């Protein structure tokens, strides 16, 4: 399946978990899916989130593959191997947290941790038919996570069910509390964004079936935020990976994209900073009138593996997710398929710091709409949280 980069057996006999190979595990190298890091020295201490999981009695079963250097949307990795999307084997697993999504979808674990800089949890969650949360920026510690510096990246869980996702958040984010009570009827702001008609049909049908109040919302800086987010990603990823590219060991497609990223200039970065501030305010204003915003996770179903060799051509997979990395708002992808049975995902976005409420809303909608993860090719069985 090419899912696990390093098998492990650490911790107690609690819930099984895997982590993306950008998170440090003491005694093991953090390779980030790259031949340029094949001989990296073992980490000397656990990433903070790994330490929290182990201290809470969880059982760490492995580190997962990813799109090389977490810089890609498809999950295709010629050196480390491309994780199998078990629900749709001819489709990409999504990137960059491809292995973490694939591990949950394959039924290897109920929870896996990924990272999300421009959609890298939500995109693979949607592609593989599982749940995936990008928390509020800064809500979960990034200590011991590659890259060491980022103004966009978030550590978060991918899971086979909402209860498992919430259980993971309650461990990795120590201030994550109980899910709050919700009003009898929610106000859901349906974002006016471009997506394939079949994708929108699936999303509209799901939202209409929810029984909640639906309001149409337009964010006029949405496209600007998408491009501004890429500018920030380009500068920060090039800064983190320049030395690795210069070794000549990074795969040609990723190296080419990184060299292109290096040409992002100061004008683009200054403009991105302005868009970040304005777009974040736009989202806050929209959420003043709504409990949550809703939109597709993917604009269209994930491409077939045979059509996705050009990672640059697939960057549009992040068109509907990256803006919320720039703004810092928490966003979650719920498993949702179109009429043809292909995954597209339902994305929900809440106020910054309101991760518990976002999860409560996601859980209500998942229950009402019978949205279940596809694990090992079949709907996931109900989960009963274990006590330890």
Automatic annotation (TrEMBL):
<dbReference type="InterPro" id="IPR036928">
    <property type="entry name" value="AS_sf"/>
</dbReference>
<dbReference type="InterPro" id="IPR000120">
    <property type="entry name" value="Amidase"/>
</dbReference>
<dbReference type="InterPro" id="IPR020556">
    <property type="entry name" value="Amidase_CS"/>
</dbReference>
<dbReference type="Pfam" id="PF01425">
    <property type="entry name" value="Amidase"/>
</dbReference>
<dbReference type="InterPro" id="IPR023631">
    <property type="entry name" value="Amidase_dom"/>
</dbReference>
<feature type="domain" description="Amidase">
    <location>
        <begin position="17"/>
        <end position="359"/>
    </location>
</feature>
<protein>
    <submittedName>
        <fullName>Amidase</fullName>
    </submittedName>
</protein>
């Amino acid at each position: 399946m090419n899912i696990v980069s390093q098998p492990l057996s650490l911790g107690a006999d609690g819930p099984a978990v895997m982590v993306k190979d950008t998170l440090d595990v003491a005694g093991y190298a953090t390779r980030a899916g790259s031949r340029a890091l094949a001989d990296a020295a073992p980490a000397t201490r656990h990433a903070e989130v790994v330490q929290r999981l182990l201290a809470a009695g969880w059982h760490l079963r492995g580190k997962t593959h990813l799109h090389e250097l977490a810089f890609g949307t498809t999950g295709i990795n010629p050196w480390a191997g491309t994780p199998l999307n078990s629900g749709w084997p001819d489709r990409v697993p999504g990137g960059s947290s491809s292995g973490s999504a694939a591990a949950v979808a394959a039924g290897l674990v109920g929870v896996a941790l990924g990272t999300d800089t421009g959609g890298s949890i939500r995109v693979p969650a949607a592609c593989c038919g599982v749940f995936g949360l990008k928390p509020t920026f800064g809500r979960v510690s990034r200590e011991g996570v590659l890259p060491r510096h980022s103004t966009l990246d978030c550590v978060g869980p991918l899971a086979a069910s909402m209860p498992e996702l919430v259980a993971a958040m309650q461990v990795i984010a120590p201030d994550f509390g109980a899910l709050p009570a919700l009003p009898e009827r929610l106000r859901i702001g349906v974002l006016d964004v471009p997506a394939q008609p079949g994708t929108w049909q699936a999303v509209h049908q799901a939202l209409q079936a929810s029984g909640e109040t639906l309001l149409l919302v337009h964010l006029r800086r949405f496209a600007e935020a998408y491009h501004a987010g890429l500018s920030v990603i380009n500068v920060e990823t090039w800064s983190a990976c320049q030395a690795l590219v210069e070794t000549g060991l990074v795969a040609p497609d990723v190296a080419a994209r990184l060299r292109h990223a290096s040409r992002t200039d100061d004008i683009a970065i200054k403009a991105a900073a302005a868009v970040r501030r304005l777009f974040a305010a736009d989202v806050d204003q929209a959420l003043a009138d709504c409990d949550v915003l809703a939109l597709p996770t993917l604009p269209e179903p994930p491409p077939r593996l045979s059509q996705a060799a050009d990672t640059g051509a697939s960057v549009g997979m992040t068109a509907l997710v990256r803006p919320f990395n720039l703004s810092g708002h928490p966003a979650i992808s719920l498993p949702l398929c179109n009429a043809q049975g292909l995954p597209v995902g339902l994305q929900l976005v809440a106020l910054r710091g309101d991760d518990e409420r976002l999860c409560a809303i996601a859980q209500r909608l998942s229950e009402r709409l019978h949205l279940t993860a596809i694990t090992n090719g079949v709907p996931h069985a109900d989960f009963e949280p274990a006590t330890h």
